[in-house]
Predict the structure.
Amino acid sequence: MIQTSFAMPQNYYTELGVPKNADEKEIKSAYRRLARKYHPDVNPSDDGAEDRFKRVNEAYQVLSDSKTRRDYDQFGDNWKHAEQMRANGGGGRSGGFHFSGGDRDFGGIDLGDLFGGSGRGNAFGRSQQQSLRTNVQITLEEAFQGSKRAITIQGASECRECTGTGIDGTVLCGECGGSGMSSMPRTLEVTIPKGTAAGDRIRVRPDGMTDLTIDVDVRRHRVFTRKDDDLITDVSVSYLDALLGGEVEVPTMTGKIALKVPSGTKAGRSFRMTGKGMPRHGRGTTGAGDLVARMVISVPGELKEEEKLLLEQLRDLQNTDPEEAGSTEDEGGEV
């Protein structure tokens, strides 16, 4: 059988300095050592370092994958055409490069591992976790209904061009210079849950390296005072309705409702309306708090003459001695 040989302008084994029978551990170890040695950031003044770094990456990408390594061992520099060549002269499948989530797969090695640190890897090392904090002020209506707010934060974020790796293909990302991060301000859309109260904290993770804490403040409302999940409001009731009984309108977060006021209602008396308060918030909670309507007696500043006369008669009637009224009644006799 005639065997065909193929020219190999770049010997991947020689590039990594390992024998052809090297195992996976030896290949990975050689790659880590050479990638650190020839990384452009480590050799900023050596133009040849970046080219060697590319060749080392290429060699590792091929030899670290069992399928592409098999193709390379069988077909040499023509390994990329292994599938076609097998179709012409035998069976088999090709390997090739692997991509995941838009990032180049370097055979299970995160380039950040080469330079230490913690967090997601990039060309200079692993990106650091950061904790950011900001605040937002909302209205009571926003807290009642729930809302969305656009919040701008200043802090490091993953480069959108290289998705935080610092590498574009096999070269440093031109957008972030290989750092994998951007310092440009970001605007996030944050959800304010229903029932949010002043002093609550909302925690979000806009990316894999950022923890954002948002301190919430709720503006003072002109009608309602909040106590936990209850709302308290003052309701004006005329002195006559308070004496004789009547009906008043009570404001709620969803509109006005009617409340019957019994006769003899005193100033400061409160009426509780179940479920008309703020939505309960927190895990496992449902329903809403109550609305407490507190009566404020309204007394007119000026009276008409007829009103004044009737009220004076009422006062005289209340000031009449009961015993005296009783003796007068006895004199009339019973039927």
